[in-house]
Amino acid sequence: MANDAGATSAATPGRQLGPWWLRSLGGSAGLMVVLLVIAVAVNAAGSPTDLRVATTFFIYLVVALGLQTFTGYSGIISFAHVGFMALGGYASALLTTPALIKQTSIPDAPHWLMSAELNFWVAGAIAVVLVMLIAFVIGIPLVRLNGAPAAVATIGVLVIVNTILSNSDSITRGAQAFYGIPAKTTIFVAAAVAAGAVLVARLFRDSDSGLGLRSSRLDVLGSEASGVNVDRVRLLAWTLSAGIAAAGGVLFAHYLTTLLPSVFMYNLTLTILTMIIIGGPTASGAVVGAMIVSVATEFLRRAEDTFSAPGLSTVVLGIFILVTMIVRPSGLLGRWEIDTWLRGRWRQVRRVQSGTTTGGGGS
Questions:
Q1: What is the pTM of this model?
Q2: Residue 17 pLDDT more than 60?
């Protein structure tokens, strides 16, 4: 990526002060520690409801970080990532569900699939790699699109995935529930995967490819003129982001232990999109947005039950999106990662203090 590096280094002189990856690791560490502390605190003192909300937050955060890695950095809205989440979940479920259960639920499945009963982590890794390969093939023509055509194409990907899962009776049980998935997703497993997703998303964002992709968000032609291969960095982000979303799907499958294709459609897509829109196009923004939406969704779910108002949470999420786009289109954190914002504020305070001290001494 020599061209990408050359195109971006001049615009980011701060990167010359030290290795970019070292600052990315340092910036990610704070968020990762926060996530793990939340897991420990909720597990130690939280109610069963708190435990459920926190685990769901971590799972959705992984998917949001996957979506952020493409949509947040490229500016192209994707509706496909919940589809990648579904593919990851079903792939892991098929590889880990006990053979005896599969003999009853999907008796017409291929023999090798019927007898497969892999370890959770091995199956999860295979599922992520498989989804990344699928996304890579799909992405070759898709990344050449911009704006509305690209968004519409990703809707097509979501619909295709849902249609295949809903009609593959001999493998996924079609529209019926696929059951018997081992319960392997604990709050600590979900938190650990979420922390890893934060690290991957942040490292990609600060890499030469990530910088090139972010530059193309505002001006594709200008980025190409500066030497950025926009199609290549988009394809890399698309493939990586699909893998992260698939990891979220693996966690989701092994938390609920039952899967339905209808779950992975527009309502869930709206929830994940709201998270990154509210937070802003950074890894920190995804974390903040996921926290806000997860807590708000739980309160809204209780309100729906109390006031018999089905659909209230969907309406409020839509309002969240409208208000955010009107009041703060770049999200709560804007383009800032929390650690870079804090460093900037600290430097500003030091400059003010230094100026006050100098002025005081001179008078």
A1: 0.89
A2: no
**Residue whose entry in the numeric block shows the structure tokens 């100026």:** 355
Take residue 181 and report the two structure tokens written for it: 């998935």
Lowest mean pLDDT among 12-16, 83-87, 122-126, 260-264: 12-16
Rounded to the nearest angstrom, the gap between the alpha carbon of residue 342 and the centroid of all alpha carbons in its chain is: 24
Q: Mean of the per-residue pLDDT values for the chain?
A: 89
Q: In sequence order, which residues have a C-beta less than 8 Å from that of residue 307 and are 6 or more positions away? A: none
Indicate the helix (H) or strand (E) that contains 155.
helix 147-167
Task: Give residue for tokens 């729906």.
Answer: 304
Q: How far apart are CA 207 and CA 1, in angstroms?
A: 10
Rounded CA gap, 297 and 267, in Å? Answer: 12
What b/e sequence results for 18-38 when a residue is b if at least 16 CB atoms lie within 10 Å of its CB, and e otherwise?
A: eebeebbeebbeebbeebeeb
Indicate whether 259 pLDDT > 90: yes
Q: Which helix (H) or strand (E) holds 121?
A: helix 120-142
- Helices (H) and strands (E) counted in the chain, each on its own, are 18, 0
Q: Burial-class residue 84 by CB neighbours within 10 Å (0-12, 13-18, 19+).
A: buried
Tell me the residue type at 102.
Answer: K
CA distance 312 to 130: 37
Q: Which residues contact 361 (CB under 8 A, 6 or more apart)?
A: none
From the centroid of its chain, how far is CA 231?
A: 21
3-state helix, strand and coil shares in percent for the chain, rounded to the nearest 5: 80, 0, 20
In sequence order, what are the beta bridge partners of 178?
A: 259
Cβ pair 235, 136 in contact under 8 A:
yes
